Amino acid sequence: MVWTDRMRTALMQRAMALYRKPASGLELKLRIAVICGVTWPTTWWALRDRDRRLILVHQPGKVASKAIVAALHDSPVARDYRVFQTHSLAPSSRDGNRIGQTQGPCAPSILWGRSELLSRNLGRRMEQERPLIVTVIRDPFDRHPSDFIHNLDRYIEGFRPFWDDPLAIDFDVLLYAYEHRFPHDARLSWYDNEIRDLFGVDVIRDSPAQDADGFALFDSQTATVALLRYEQLGTAFPAMTKVLFGLDLPLPRIHATADRGLAPLLESLRDAGAQLVTTQEVFKSSALYRRFYT
């Protein structure tokens, strides 16, 4: 039922608001336990719904995936499809937390077992039907700094997300961590590991390098894959919904960076990062960049 999707989305929004409030270590663990005790069952129940087909907005992050999920949830598409946001499904993924909706409040180190359970449920569901996979590509010179700045706790020792201010970190420290600690190569190979190897579609090498709408559609034995270009989402998303659902749906843009006041810092990091010889060599030699951005 559509109302369960809305309830699940509302629960996650409330959960994230609670998670972001300052708390001691023990209080934070108690909050996580309460949040996940509510959100995991709703996600598990949603996966049990066999009356609607499966849509996975499956992407590496920082490509407006939340806006895509929200637009699909709030449209007539939700009557016939269950929509999930996912980031990593491949067995080789180092992040044990596979289901995107619970990525924020449910730390992988605490809930590895439960995330594995949900991944297995999702895997069984995909074996029984051909899901629709929606994925998005974005210029790595723009996407990687955004990914980095929103996950500083992974690359800056002692940084606490939602409590510590990224603007207080020395910029040279940020730039060093971005160049040497951020997994640029792994992010660039995401589409091979998570789309080609799982669903049999090579969206990088088989896609048209230039497309008027920024949208391409592929079929394989296991899935239908829709590829959207981030830089053309304003035309790509409506083109996709028109072809797949007969609906011309607009896409509301959600700028989490601007909401958190990080836009100036992110812009500085993009400018400085683009001048680094290391990142230039890695990006420009990648199949993604050569195919779409040269």
Provide a descriptive summary of the structure in words.
- The protein has one domain (2-139, 186-254).
- A hairpin with a 4-residue loop joins strand 4 (215-219) and strand 5.
- Residues 94-114 have low confidence and may be disordered.
- With 294 residues, the protein is α/β, with parallel strands linked by helices.
- The protein contains 13 helices and five strands.
- Helix 1 packs antiparallel against helix 2 (25-47) and helix 2 packs parallel to helix 4.
- The protein has a five-stranded mixed beta sheet, with helices on both faces.
- The protein has helices at 2-19, 25-47, 65-73, 108-128, 140-149, 171-180, 184-188, 190-199, 233-245, 256-259, 263-274, 277-284, 287-292, and strands at residues 53-58, 81-86, 132-137, 215-219, 224-229.
